[in-house]
Structure formats: structure tokens, C-alpha cells
């Protein structure tokens, strides 16, 4: 069944954050920054009484941890929102159709027939499914289109069968 939908600015920003968070380096990097910030903050507090440099080290590393989290939760969505406003094609009506051979996406200006064998990977959240034809390019399929009759569970099942497990 064919369904039509629009990607909203919120969808695009949330997908960008989800994409960034799911990169292999993102979670360990943010976790390492937070742990390092806490450890150094504790050491800095301990050194505060003995050395005048302790608080500066603690503040510096805690700032690094906060900066990493800021990038993921504020900067990436903010940048994605700006890109969304500039990228007029993403704001157009998109038609999606699930077929035996893959997924068809079309807009007023063109389309793509993503065959299962050409899909690099896929991921899902509670709000959407991201289908990647290459590592940094994805098609966003909002799960809300299930209300129009698009079979999201079948899409996920076929992606798992033909592409492999979610990554």
C-alpha cells in the first residue's frame, strides 16, 4: 500500500540526534567524557586544598563532558533544524510503498527504489525507522504512517530478513 507523509522539522532533528547517538563512537565517547569529568572533578576537589590548580583541572574536564553532551543534545538538533529549513526537498510530500523487492520512495521531483540488497543497514526508535543506503545517508520513515495503513512491522521484519539485524 502506498502512503504519503511529510517529514517535520522535529522528525528531522530527532532523527539527526538518533543517528549521531547510534554512531559507534558516540556513546562510548560521551560516557568516557562524563566519567572522566566526574573523576577529575573529584580529584580536583581533593587537590583544591593542596594545589591552586586543582579546581581549574576539574572545571576543564567537567566542561569537556558538558560540551560533549551539549553537542549531542543541543547542537546536532539545532543544526539539523537549520538544515531542514534550507533543504526544501525534504519538506515535500513523500510517498512510500513497500514491495517484495524493497521500498519505493517518491516525491514530486523524483524517487528512489531501494532494493533490499542495496540497503546498508537500518535502525529504529519508537518514532521512526531509518533506512541507510550508505553509512551517513538515511531515509526517514515515521512510524506514524501506520495509521494510514503502512505496515511498519512488515517493514521491520523484511529489513531484518533481507538486510540483517538492526545496527
Strand order of the largest sheet: 1-2-3-4
Ranges where pLDDT stays below 50 over 5 or more residues in a row are none
Rg estimate, integer Å: 21 Å
Summed over residues and divided by their number, the pLDDT gives a mean of: 83
Given helix and strand content, the structural type is alpha+beta
Q: What characteristic shape results from the CA principal axes?
A: elongated
Helix content: 40-55%
Put the structure in a nutshell.
This protein is α+β, with helices and mostly antiparallel strands. Helix content is about 50%, strand content about 25%.
SSE blueprint:
Blueprint: E1 2-5, H1 9-21, H2 26-48, H3 54-86, E2 94-98, E3 102-107, E4 110-115, E5 121-124, E6 128-134, E7 137-142, H4 152-162
Antiparallel strand pairs: 1-2, 2-3, 3-4, 5-6, 6-7
Give structural notes.
It is a single chain. The protein has helices at residues 9-21, 26-48, 54-86, 152-162, and strands spanning 2-5, 94-98, 102-107, 110-115, 121-124, 128-134, 137-142. The strands form 2 sheets. It has a 4-stranded antiparallel beta sheet with strand order 1-2-3-4, with no helix packed on it. A 3-stranded antiparallel beta sheet has the order 5-6-7, with helices on one face. The protein is α+β, with helices and mostly antiparallel strands. Helices cover 48% and strands 23% of the residues. The protein has 2 domains: 2-7 and 91-162, Roll (PH-domain like); 9-88. It is elongated. The two termini are 27 Å apart. The mean pLDDT is 83. Helix 1 (9-21) packs across helix 3 and helix 2 runs antiparallel to helix 3 (54-86). The chain has 4 helices and 7 strands; from the N terminus they run E-H-H-H-E-E-E-E-E-E-H.
Amino acid at each position: 500500500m502506498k502512503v504519503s507523509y511529510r517529514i517535520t522539522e522535529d522528525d528531522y532533528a530527532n532523527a539527526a540526534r538518533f543517528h549521531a547517538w547510534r554512531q559507534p563512537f558516540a556513546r562510548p565517547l560521551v560516557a568516557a567524557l562524563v566519567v572522566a569529568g566526574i573523576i577529575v572533578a573529584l580529584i580536583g576537589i581533593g587537590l583544591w586544598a593542596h594545589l591552586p590548580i586543582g579546581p581549574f583541572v576539574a572545571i576543564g574536564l567537567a566542561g569537556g563532558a558538558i560540551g560533549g553532551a551539549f553537542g549531542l543534545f543541543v547542537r546536532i538538533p539545532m543544526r539539523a533544524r537549520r538544515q531542514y529549513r534550507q533543504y526544501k526537498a525534504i519538506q515535500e510530500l513523500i510517498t512510500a510503498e513497500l514491495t517484495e523487492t524493497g521500498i519505493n520512495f517518491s516525491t514530486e521531483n523524483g524517487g528512489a527504489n531501494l532494493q533490499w540488497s542495496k540497503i546498508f543497514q537500518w535502525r529504529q526508535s519508537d518514532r521512526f525507522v531509518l533506512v541507510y543506503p550508505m553509512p551517513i545517508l538515511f531515509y526517514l520513515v515515521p512510524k506514524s504512517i501506520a495509521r494510514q495503513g503502512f505496515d511498519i512491522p512488515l517493514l521491520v521484519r523484511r529489513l531484518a530478513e533481507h538486510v540483517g539485524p538492526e545496527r
